[in-house]
Write a structure and sequence with these properties.
With 978 residues, the protein is of the alpha+beta class. It is built from 33 helices and 15 strands. The longest helix has 46 residues.
Length: 978
């Protein structure tokens, strides 16, 4: 380890700030000079370091922060008091205190041995790790004198040579000096674009990156040998803060802790630190992820650019994002996606770009949905079936809805339900289902084109090989499992061959995953079944009500309370299933981060999909299908009769169920939780800090450094929750849209708030995440496509089996006498002789309607009681069933064909982008051709000069009074200069 011993003693004014003096490793082709990192002695150090954004010298920028907890012993506190009073003694003490990476023992007194062993072990592991970081070329500075008691910070800076080296390893595309013209539209298209720009100017954010660009710099993977090709006019800004933090994080991941304190066990007692250091064990290739998991460090994060609020705050990217993006006042504006990508990286930029495209595409879907709903409202008075149901002159007596306590009732009493059902069950819903299927296909194609434009603009067009190389790095947990296996095998068989995890090693985890997922799905079904039992039992109990109003509102009360119970259960299980999915993925021990993320997403989506949609599937496809008939009902537990649909059908109840669950999840889970929980955590942190300030007034008067402020923010937990809630919403919008045409409108209103809510969370409430390169949204795109395909099938079945659309068509074209819908209601009702009731199931009060009932009606296609095959399924049922199945096949194939046609007719890559990519390749070839020609010309020039110089030396050697060796040395010196 190369550490400059000369500068290990630091000035006493530093008060807990430890500077690590390092010398970077020599790069290929570059001779690195020894760099000495000293504190700049100034009266106001915070003025130089800009309150934590720079090292104490005010020149080197902080690229990353490592946070750890420490416990000061009594000796340490005594030394700190001495530092405040005696500069000379402080210097001598500091010389004995080891800095990170120095590797030695701490001889500060016998009381030091009484420190907690685990804290001692963590400190030694930190020293080893930070020493390896120094060997990798990073520069470090430590700060333990902070406002947060017991928390230390290690500031990391990547010098220029390290940035160049890592940029070359990571194949980062950087802008070159070559500038080329972007193809511009001409003629009518140019005028149209100018008009659109003027119209949309008020809704464009005031960000410099959004100005129309006519030129673009040619980008190329960085190479130290070809630095002359890149625009290095401003080295300070050549690597922006996002790129610098990404480079440092890559170093932190692959840098390992090679040794640590060795535990002798509690029985032998605690050894001295010198003895413990002689015992070493290898930690493996774990990096920062393992150190964070083991508590050696408590946090690791890059810094935000600065403050985002205040009058005297300098303008920075964070403040600009807060004003033009993370504010509810700019909800009507487009997102500054380029600035989001510049600050947070490509992966987060792609998420918000996708969310923006999805929200934009919801606008036409919402308009069409509102038109369909208004059509239903306008035609409700012209709907003949609902008019027949509301006509009291028909005097249709219906069979009881429950045994004993329920009596006969008139169909006209369900007039309101029938009229409301027409709002969502009309011919326009079929058109809307086809429209939404094509909308989903168009949305996916539009996003692919938008994604390609972003890839071109963000220089990600050739990212495939680099992405696989980066994501193929094994996870720390995988390496630990492999190490454990190799050590066990070495102990048994004395073999040291390289091991890997096989399917036999993972079989217990796979089996646990299978059983766990089956159990969770079964638990969801059991809960839904329990709610069904609640609905049946509550309906039976309310039917015993003595008041007519209570008996009349049974269906509304039961439906509303059951949906609320379902909503609460869904919200609770969503959180539980998220944790279970992560645990199941962890025990599988996937090899790479990409594999881990994809498996986690698949499990979480499967469980949450089942959790969110099972109650809706029950209402759509199962409720009212297994009721039986009067005199032969189906019972649960021999006492509860299965539920029946309302006289107007189950589609109205499906609409209520879908709307309440969708709106409830969006308002409670997506918005209230995302707003309320961070606010509560922020309030708790504020109360704790206020208590600490009251205890230590001197600490309160200090101004917090940037890394202290960011440490109090919430850590970034990934994009999976953000994507998941949007994918579930996409399912609500597409899967059952035939029953709820207003779903796109509510989704649009939610997303307008969601974009600004997520933006505010990222900018103000979360630590700055490490920028991750990505060329697409990953597995989420495949999930979206799957949901879109599934939506076609589900909507076909909803229209066929849940709504009355097909029975109406069959009646209109097969049974109607005058070509109208008159008589449809009577056609769908079967007759039942009340004398055929089972014993003990007939109504207790058969005369409730004021007259004796001989025949009651129920909704089904069965033979009448006076038929030879009474109560058997009639021919009408089979005709309707055949029409329903035929509609499903035709609808599904037609819509699938139209979706595939849209997919085929819209190219994935826009024509102008493909031309620009081709142009970039041609220009890059020209640049390298010119460079090679220049090299050849320079070599030929040097050869000509060399030959002429040699001839001159040979021609003049007899005339010059010099030795032969002198003239040769003269020529030789010329060659060295060249």
């Amino acid at each position: 380890m190369r550490v400059n011993e000369k500068y290990s003693s630091l000035p006493a004014e530093e008060k807990g700030i430890h500077i690590i003096n390092i010398r970077a490793i020599e790069d290929i082709g570059y001779v690195q000079h020894e760099s000495i990192l000293l504190n700049s002695l100034c009266q106001d150090p915070d003025a130089n370091c800009k309150h934590g954004l720079y090292f104490r010298d005010g020149k080197r920028k902080v690229d990353y922060i490592l946070v750890y907890h420490f416990k000061k012993s009594s000796v340490s506190k005594t030394l700190t008091r001495r530092i405040h009073h005696n500069d000379s003694s402080a210097r001598s003490i500091k010389q004995d205190h080891q800095l990170p990476g120095k590797g030695g023992h701490l001889d500060v007194g016998e009381s030091e041995l009484h420190m907690d062993y685990h804290e001692d072990d963590k400190r030694f592991r930190r020293e080893e790790y930070e020493g390896n970081l120094m060997e990798a070329g990073l520069e470090l500075e430590r700060d333990e004198d902070t406002k947060i008691h017991g928390v230390g910070f290690v500031k990391i800076h990547a010098p220029w040579n390290v940035l160049c080296r890592e940029a070359e390893f990571l194949k980062l595309k950087m802008p070159t000096k070559k500038v080329y013209q972007i193809n511009q539209a001409h003629g009518l298209l140019k005028k149209i674009n100018s008009v659109i720009q003027k119209i949309t100017e008020p809704i464009q954010p005031k960000v410099a990156e959004l100005k129309p660009q006519t030129v673009k710099r040619l980008s190329y993977p960085f190479s130290r040998e070809k630095q002359h090709l890149f625009d290095l006019s401003d080295k300070e800004s050549f690597f922006d803060s996002k790129t610098r933090s990404t480079i440092v994080y890559e170093i932190l991941k692959r840098t390992t802790c090679t040794k640590a304190k060795y535990s002798m066990g509690t029985g032998e007692g605690r050894k001295t630190e010198t003895t413990l250091l002689n015992k070493r064990w290898k930690c493996g290739k774990y990096g920062i992820t393992s150190l964070l998991a083991n508590g050696v460090y408590s946090a690791a994060y890059p810094l935000h650019d600065g403050d985002y609020e205040g009058e005297n705050v300098e303008l920075n990217d964070r403040k600009l994002l807060c004003e033009e993006w993370a504010s509810y006042g700019v909800f009507y504006k487009y997102q500054p996606i380029d600035l989001v990508r510049k600050y947070f990286g490509e992966k987060i930029g792609l998420y918000f770009a996708w969310l923006g495209v999805y929200t934009e595409m919801l606008i036409p879907a919402s308009i069409v949905g509102v038109i369909v709903f208004l059509y239903g409202c306008a035609t409700v008075d012209e709907n003949i079936p609902s008019m027949e149901m509301c006509d009291e002159r028909n005097n249709i007596t219906m069979c009881p809805l429950c045994d004993k306590t329920c009596s006969y009732w008139k169909m006209s009493s369900a007039c309101a339900t029938a009229r409301a059902s027409h709002l969502f069950d009309n011919p326009a819903t079929v058109f809307f289902s086809v429209f939404m299927a094509l909308w989903a296909a168009t949305f996916m194609e539009h996003w692919k084109r938008k994604q390609m434009r972003l890839n071109y603009r963000w220089d990600l067009t050739g990212f495939e090989e680099e992405e696989e190389a980066v994501k193929a790095h094994p996870r720390a947990e995988y390496e630990a499992k492999v190490l454990e296996k190799s050590l066990r095998k070495e102990y048994i068989h004395k073999k040291t061959d390289k091991e890997k995890l096989t399917w036999k090693d993972r079989f217990p985890a796979y089996f646990t995953n299978f059983v766990g997922i089956i159990f969770m799905v079964g638990l969801t079904f059991a809960i839904v079944f329990g709610v069904i039992i609640y609905r049946i039992s509550t309906a039976a109990a309310l039917a015993l009500s003595s008041t007519p109003s209570g008996r009349s509102s049974v269906r509304v009360t039961v439906t509303a309370t059951a949906v609320i119970i379902n909503l609460v259960v869904i919200i609770i299980l969503d959180e539980v299933y998220g944790c279970i999915a992560r645990w199941l993925t962890q025990i599988e021990v996937p090899k790479t981060d990409k594999s881990f993320e994809e498996r986690l997403i698949f499990k979480a989506f499967l469980l949450k999909f089942v959790n969110a949609y099972t109650p809706i599937f029950y209402v759509a496809f199962f409720k009212g299908r297994f009721v039986g008939r009067p005199g032969d009902y189906v019972y649960i537990f021999h006492s509860f009769r299965m539920e029946e649909c309302a006289p107007g059908g189950c589609l109205m109840e499906l609409c209520i169920q879908l709307s309440i669950i969708m709106l409830g999840k969006q308002l409670i889970q997506n918005n209230l939780f995302e707003i309320g929980i961070p606010k509560m955590k922020k309030l708790i942190r504020y109360i704790k800090l206020k208590q600490q300030r009251s205890l230590d007034h001197e600490e309160h008067m200090k101004k917090k450094q940037r890394y202290e402020v960011d440490y109090n923010l919430e850590p970034f937990a990934g994009l999976t929750p953000e994507y998941m809630e949007m994918i579930i919403q996409f399912g609500f919008v597409t899967l059952f849209v035939a029953s709820f045409p207003l779903a796109p409108l509510f989704a649009l209103l939610n997303n307008i708030i969601e974009i600004r809510l997520d933006a505010k969370k990222f900018v103000t409430e979360l630590r700055r995440p490490v920028a991750v390169r990505a060329k697409d949204i990953g597995i989420w795109y495949n999930i979206l496509r799957g949901v879109g395909k599934l939506a076609v099938i589900i909507n076909a079945f909803v229209i066929s089996f849940t709504s009355d659309f097909i029975p109406r068509l069959v009646y209109l074209y097969m049974y109607s006498e005058n070509g109208t819908m008159h008589g449809f209601v009577n056609h769908t009702l079967s007759s039942f002789n009340v004398s055929d009731f089972q014993g003990g199931t007939a109504p207790n009060d058969p005369m409730e309607l004021g007259y004796e009932v001989q025949i009651c009606r129920y909704k089904d296609y069965r033979e009448p009681p006076w038929s030879e095959n009474k109560y058997e399924i009639s021919k009408d049922f089979w005709a309707v069933l055949a029409a329903r199945l035929a509609f499903v096949i035709v609808f599904q194939n037609l819509v699938m064909f139209m979706s595939d046609f849209v997919d085929w007719i819209i190219p994935d890559i826009p024509k102008d982008i493909s031309q620009q990519i081709h142009k970039e390749k041609v220009l890059m070839v020209e640049v390298f051709m010119k460079e090679e020609q220049g090299k050849l010309q320079m070599i030929e020039t040097w050869k000509d000069k060399d030959m002429k110089k040699g001839e001159n030396c040979n021609n003049h050697s007899p005339k010059v009074s010099r030795s032969h060796s002198g003239s040769m040395s003269s020529c030789h010196s010329y060659h060295i200069d060249v």
